[in-house]
Amino acid sequence: MNICADQTHNVFKLDTPRFSLALALADGKWLGQAYCGPRLETADLAWALSLDQRPNTPDTLPRETVSFFDCFPSAYPAANMGDFREPCLAVRTVHGQIDCLPRFKGYEILPGKPALEGLPATFGDPEDCNTIKIILADDVTGVEVELYYTAFTGLDVIAQSVRVRNGGESPVWLERALSACLSFPYEGQKLVTLHGSWAREGAIQTRDIGVGVQGTYSSRGITGHQDQPFMAVVSPGTDQEQGTVCGMHLLYSGSFLAQVQRDQHDSLRTVIGVHPDGFRWKLAPGEAFQTPEAVLVFSDGGLGQMTRTLHDLYRGHLIRSPWLHRPRPVLLNNWEATYFDFDEERLLRIARRAAELGVELFVLDDGWYENRHTDSGGLGDWKVDRKKLPHGLDGLAERVNALGLKFGLWMEPEMVSPDSELYRAHPDWAIRTAGRDPMLCRDQYVLDLSCPEVEKYVWEKVSGTLKSANISYLKWDMNRPVTNLGSAGQPPDRQGEVGHRYVLALYRLQERLTREFPDLLLENCCSGAGRFDPGMLFYSPQIWGSDDTDALERLRIQEGLSMLYPLSSIGAHVSDCPNHEVGRVTPFETRGNTALTGAFGYELDVTAIAPEEQEQIPAQIERYHRFCGLVQSGDYYRLSSLQAGSRLDARMVVSKDRKQALVVLTRSLNAPNQRPKFIRLRGLDPSAVYADGDTGREYPGEVLLHIGLPVELPGWDFGSRLISLTQK
Ligand code: DGJ
């Protein structure tokens, strides 16, 4: 058992292979964090709660209650009770006041990990993980707080979530209920977060932690292109190889907050959870609120080790799709090939040539339904446009299938266009505040999924469409943030629940989709990576990585996303040049190599590209099949980074048994007078010999690890090479 409740020392200690988290009680009632760091065998740690000269506890010195809470490293700090730092819990009572001070009541150790009702969560059997539930309660309001900590046995991961229950006799309103909180002494650590914008996702930012509060958040109703629900506190000098890392990643797809606070005593408090702005959840007596889960990930081998732990966690304990380890069919999506300008004949022309070249799945993107000639109409009605598709979706699917291709479809189920029958009939089904027209974005409104009848309508449209034709793949898109949060279906004192209820309904819809269409390959999308988060990965094995398909931009974006997410979860396509987003021309081979370490596909009119490019497609597809097992299950190493200023993007994947490796090298701009360079590889067996699959050249593993592989790239801008190494 990797969790112990040591009654002698009043300590609860959770161990992962290399880390420990110890929670302890002060005065037998105040739950604090005694320790979080490299693994300790002793449980005699409660004394560490008073390590930094904190004043005596309220019991030993009653006149100094506030001084105690002002610096106590509370495991789940409450607002308005003398802890003046970032709280996790704020409860408003019937008196209109913020009041709650939960004390320790008991605990329970549970083998394995209980599921979170209605929310995505990591899972595991008792041999993978164990859970401790620590119960706190407030005597005045009756509010009970259950803290769930799950420690994994084979991964340096602790999953935390919280359930708040109203055990009192009057309603209360939760105004803040975050998912996790950790404390550390400040020792010059830095803060690592991920940012961006539409088509520029995944930019890694590292900054100093000054006194005060800083972090990252989304108030967009979705996680957003701008900020990932992730934050890591890293020791000074941390890079891919070295340094201590404590990351927090929220399994949630709505507005979130992730903050670190350096306080007056140089202590750090990190918190993560649902964004409290606009959040207000009513708990009638007996009702409970479950927070999303936060993954706490630890590494003493730098960011690279954190990445590999997260990849293993998400592949082994989060993504449930049967497609996770199956070779995904190589798809061709018509979006950048045709945009809205297509009919059945044009689609079939592209599909026919794609099939000849080895493509396996044809995906029809936006524009297949009535009143959709630009992005200004038709959303919500989902009636097939018979002018474009005279034989309907089923007729098109049949014809595509007859070419030997599977058929896939795009939908944007959460939206309604003002110019639609649905909106004319039900304007109150759009998320809106009373008496005000909602704000338009991409000329569309967001449907109010918090209303059961709207959720039902959306389900009927999605499931009805999927049943109407032989559809093997669905791209579930979402193209705007949520504004005007309000619902005609909720009473005034529940309006603060709309944002979270929306996310819960989205999860219910996707859960039902995975149950009722178990073989469907689901790809989530949000104008690219606008909702690329671990919550969505619970339902779909892949998410479209960005609307920017330029190879160079994609290298940067995929570098950022792959810091957290398995390579096979990042939708990546070869598109046409000049690139539609940035006008850049890159070699076809480079575009292929960039997409190959993702969920691989094409997004171009294969009939319109140069014959030399068409000819490369069968070999690219063959390579994808050759390496997809490795990419889906191997250990990923970032060797050289464009984001860090290098002109060389170098990444590699090594099989778990270290017998096979794939290295992809891509140059940004070429430069004159370059001396030959080597790139040191990682993860290989130093005592083995590896052979290059193309040249047959042999290298001892120790040479590749310590001297490196020669960087031999074509002598032009954006030149790329893929090197496959196999143990002799
Ligand atoms: C945004 C997506 O990211 C694109 O790939 C495409 O599906 C468009 N929406 C269609 O409207």
Descriptive account of the structure:
With 728 residues, this protein is an alpha+beta fold. Among the domains are: 3-317, alpha-galactosidase from lactobacil brevis (Beta-galactosidase, Chain A, domain 5, Distorted Sandwich); 639-727, Golgi alpha-mannosidase II (Immunoglobulin-like, Sandwich), CATH 2.60.40. Helix content is 20%, strand content 30%. The chain has 13 helices and 39 strands. The strands form 8 sheets. Strands 6, 7, 8, 9, 12, 13, 15, 16, 20 and 21 form a 10-stranded antiparallel β-sheet that branches. It has an 8-stranded parallel barrel with strand order 22-23-24-27-28-29-30-31, surrounded by 4 helices. It has a 6-stranded antiparallel β-sheet with strand order 32-33-34-39-36-37. Strand 2 and strand 3 form a beta hairpin. Helix 11 packs parallel to helix 12 (611-633). The chain binds (2R,3S,4R,5S)-2-(hydroxymethyl)piperidine-3,4,5-triol (DGJ). (2R,3S,4R,5S)-2-(hydroxymethyl)piperidine-3,4,5-triol is lined by residues 335, 365-366, 375, 410, 477, 479, 525, 527-528, 544, 547.
